[in-house]
Hints:
GO terms for molecular function: chromate transmembrane transporter activity. Belongs to the chromate ion transporter (CHR) (TC 2.A.51) family. With 392 residues, this protein is mostly helical. The protein has one domain. It has 16 helices and no strands. Helix 4 packs antiparallel against helix 12, helix 5 (111-135) crosses helix 11 (259-269) and helix 8 runs antiparallel to helix 12 (279-311).
Amino acid sequence: MNKLKILLEILIVSTRLGFTSFGGPVAHLGYFHTEYVRRRKWLDEKSYADLVALCQFLPGPASSQVGIGIGVMRAGVIGGIVSFLGFTLPSVIALIIFALLLNSFGFTDAGWIHGLKIVAVVVVAHAILGMAKNLTPDVKRKTIALFAIVVTLLWQTAFTQVGVILLAGFVGFLLYKHQTVEDSSDEVKFPLSHRFAVVCLTLFFGLLIALPIMREATNLNWVALFDSFYRAGSLVFGGGHVVLPLLEREFVPAGWLTEEQFLAGYGAAQAVPGPLFTFAAYIGAVINGWQGGLLATVAIFLPAFLLILGTLPFWNSLRRNRNVKGALMGVNAAVVGILIAALYHPIWTSSILSAVDFAFAAILFSMLVFWKLPPWVIVLTGALGGFLLSLL
């Protein structure tokens, strides 16, 4: 009964966060710190900082992985699942409903949809500014980011981002392998065995290899969908905004959905709280109804689950490895470059079509960055402004 009470408490707290956590991954981590560390004291400052560091190191949605990790520390694997469901389902349901309405009424050419596309420009530009400041502070990492921009724009294939990330990790290892690593005698305790962790990691890599083979062998749409979303969730470093170019190149050129549908959904995703990875639920629902939305959600978040459960028991030794940290510094710099490339294409090229569009984007950017208005206000203003502009 005590365990059930703990799980219920995790569900209530995480669901409340799922309904109220606007602002992206960094803001989510702030909400988590306030709720879990300061208010409820489920873990201390050091343990929280270590958990955040681990999730920043792993590919996938960092804020969701932190929430899963806290649930695991509180009540084991089931606690992690409950924490994930509470934080994620509100935005999943909202975006699936939006996709179904989009399909039913076919208003992708409406003015307010164009307004949402301009919102996408503003949100990604804001994300780039924050990430570039933290992840490319020196000339070496700025150069890695520049390399990522050039390669990503000139060779637009499904494997370009993966190759850029791997090469950047190797360069980062070479450049920063002699950096000093802060040590700590305190270790974070996780209620998971090493054997269970190895099983999770084996399953993660096994699916990454097996799904493309199954896709070619079966030629089934749902296998192809699962493979695309699973691969996107497995290879994205840097949080939800970075998944944009991967998903765009997986689904738009292949004809699964139009660029207008894609960017409209991305704009709408800014209006809902919770992790931006739930944008996958929108894409899945546009392609194959609510069933596709649920399938996409499971597929894109499954790698995050397997990775966090597979690495938690090993984190105490991993976080002290200077080679790993050096590679990660290179990867994070490349992520900034990939984001800048995505800001230009497809976002800018399909959204800023006139001087009026640019002026409106400047107003929305000022509202978000300088006036510090909530993201949902930016989204509503973008939709309304797009509608009014279409009447001119």
